Amino acid sequence: MSYTQDYKTKLVSPEKAVKIVNSGDIVDYGFFNGKPIILDKALAARAGELRDVEVFTAVTVPPVPEVVNHPESFTYIDWQWSKLTRMLHAFVQPTYYCPILYHRGPFYYRELLTQDPNENLTRDYRSVYYNDPAKKGKAKWIAMMQVGPMNEAGYFNLGPQNSETSAKIQSADIVIVEVNPNTPTCLGGNEESVHISRVDYIVEAPPDQLLYDAPQVEPSKVEQQIAAHVMKYIYDGCCIQLGIGGMPNMVGKLIAASDLKNLGGHTEMFVDAYVDMIESGRMNGSKKNIDRFKCSYTFAIGSKRMYDFMHNNPALASYPVNYTNDPRIIAQIDNMVSINNAIEVDLFSQVNAESSGMGQVSGNGGMWDFVLGAQWSKKGKSFICLASTHTDSKGETKSRITPQLPLGSIVTIPRQMVDYIVTEYGAVKLTACPTWMRAEKIISIAHPDFRDDLIKEAEKMKIWRQSNKK
Predict the structure, then answer these.
(1) Distance CA 182, CA 13 (A)
(2) Residue numbers annotated as active site
(3) Mean confidence (pLDDT) of the chain
(4) Out of 3.30.450.20, 1.10.3720.10, 3.40.1080.20, 3.20.20.70, which CATH number does the structure's domain 221-468 have?
(5) Which tens digits make up the pLDDT trace of 332-347?
(6) What are the boundaries of each domain within the chain?
(7) ∠ CA(419), CA(270), CA(304), 5° rounding?
(8) What is the DSSP track for 429-466?
(9) What is the pTM of this model?
């Protein structure tokens, strides 16, 4: 069956596509590299005639979305902050964070946003969300995302951002796809593609519209030291999840240069380090309990080299986030090793990975999912890594290990969920440790210049035993 005529019928200009948006509507951009570009420009051009339009996305990547330049018309909401989101929030318009458990993203769309006509009391999250009965049944939910070109079977591949996309398409009132010829075809898994029958409008991106080519930052000396500590716990047959940042990437480089073998990959975010591990032959997935011989992921941000590697690559499996990040799925994989970054840790072992005081820096993302899932895994381990110090805006060195988290800080991982904490001074296991032992272990990996003060604070907090004094 040919879908050429359907394609031609639904093909419109960006300007015509965004005419569907009215004041008060909700526009849901694709996450990550799925953020539309020409549709965003066309929507921003209508700022003068629109008001009270909410725009959702997650992990805003360049180019800067043009709707943020019109705060009188558009409210911008990011489900998982990025460096660019922080800049927009600071210098352009207030941007709002939406805390979620990432693995439940598809549930939020399918169960909270979908109205069931067979129920007397409809599950209309839109009216509940706004606390505004006047919007019930009136505000449209419009999904816009970048996809790859349609194939002969009528499917558009979602590229390197499976995530929540299929659920978003299912719950949206209107679906508009922006076809980018440079989107790699990412094999599933499942729900990695959308059929044309689920699409209302099609617009075509110019041939020079590229995916965000993330700069590859060389790991610092401290990040190399932290990665070296983590490497002591990785052995043949482990399955690796890496978070974002220089330190996790360094772990990937060390693995690629090691003599480890038969490693597996199961992750939220696919990054360049996985290319290194797979191409080196260290990661082949042969020992995985599920998705054997494949590296499973739900989204990817990296270099052009990485996107080229992903294109039609059967070594990879793209899945929706309610599969990759569900702790119950992660727990099925033996020897799961989860490696993530944090901003600061206090002496109670509470972990902040998303704020600087009250200022949003990042989001919970899938950290909670993998910290828990890895510990449910047979012989699994969770590592939360951070440099022991940082330099503040005044040029002063501050400890990232603090007596208590500063006022307004967010607890991303509660103390009872923490497994290993790692700094450049070592790795300590905190599972099932009493408070005094946690304090002792955490202080042992703090920067030496701060340890005496931390001991004094621990004594005041009555979580320091006299016998700990050297």
Answers:
(1) 19
(2) 268
(3) 92
(4) 3.40.1080.20
(5) 999 999 999 999 999 9
(6) 4-204, 221-468
(7) 145
(8) E-TT--HHHHHHHHHHTS-HHHHHHHHHHHHHTT---G
(9) 0.93
386, 350 contact by CB (below 8 A): no
**C-beta of residue 365 within 8 angstroms of C-beta of residue 245:** no
Report residue 355's pLDDT band, with 50, 70 and 90 as the boundaries: confident
Residue 157 · residue 147 · CB < 8 Å:
yes
Quote the radius of gyration of the chain (alpha carbons, Å). 23
Give me 375's structure tokens: 């510990």
Q: Are strands 426-429 and 420-423 parallel, antiparallel or unpaired?
A: antiparallel
C-alpha triplet 357, 358, 363: angle, nearest 5°: 95
Task: List pLDDT tens digits, range 182-197.
Answer: 999 999 999 999 999 9
CATH code given to domain 4-204: 3.40.1080.10
Q: Residue 416: which residues within 8 A CB-CB, separation 6 or more?
A: none
- Residue 341 amino acid letter: N
